[in-house]
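Request: Mind sharing a record?
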Amino acid sequence: MIMMPCAAFAESRPATDYTAEANRSWYDTLDFSDESEKENALRGLIEAPESLIIYDEAGNVVWNVADYSFVNELETAPDTVNPSLWRNTQYNSYAGLFEVCDGIYQVRGYDMANATFIRTDNGWIVFDVLMCTQDMQAAKALMEKHFGELDIKAVLYSHSHIDHYGGILGLINREDAADPALTLAEQLASGKVVVLAPEGFLEHAVSENIYCNAAMSRRAMYQYGVLLEPGETGKMSIGIGLGQSIGNTGLIAPTYEIATDETIVIDGLEIQFQLTPGTEAPAEMNAYFPKYRGLWLAENCTG
């Protein structure tokens, strides 16, 4: 029998004296006057939505950044929240379209992960496609608002965790993908979208999110406080983002797997791949773009 956590909770309570003192002590330990991370988080901002709430087709909320607006209303963290977590939640609430450099853009804060758009000679490569369809649709719409209709040449999955591939159907349709029976050169010449992933991606995506789904879902509920409401005595940021979106997820299988540390040219853009299996995920890879001097590490550089 599979048992899920119960949705009944005791009323939230104020912090105990011990908790309040422990949380306040971090102001003496860390330098909260250093706002360099805030500067980094806001650098290159092109557009930030005034209030970001994303809905599915039935009108259900699948992603809500507006619920965390309370973190910007206080100068210091309340006694119930560790000040570092409070600041992390503030910075994770900065959502919008950002320029990393001329030719590389990111939509951040539209899901737990980011979507990265890299310009090629005649179109775009998209690195990671968020967790759900609706969030990726919103991210794509934000990009197209500023750059016009996107001609997608390729999609790259950094690794086998669902927050980096589950939104693929919000970017392209299944019929848009190249034929995996073709060679990579033939796929690139076909005009279809090449979907690249590290070797072993599909095996681990299936094993983690189908075979182990029940156990991983239960773990996430406890780990992230999924059923709690955002607030000073409820749910805060989960570190790498504001939480997990709850929209529709999908998967388009890779049409080409990166099996060695190889260099590929897609629509004039050179990409140098480095496989990193068994790191942050069982199947994962890094990529370097000499043209932009850009290094893409996904969650291998999460700090």
In short: Residues 133-147 form the longest helix (15 residues).
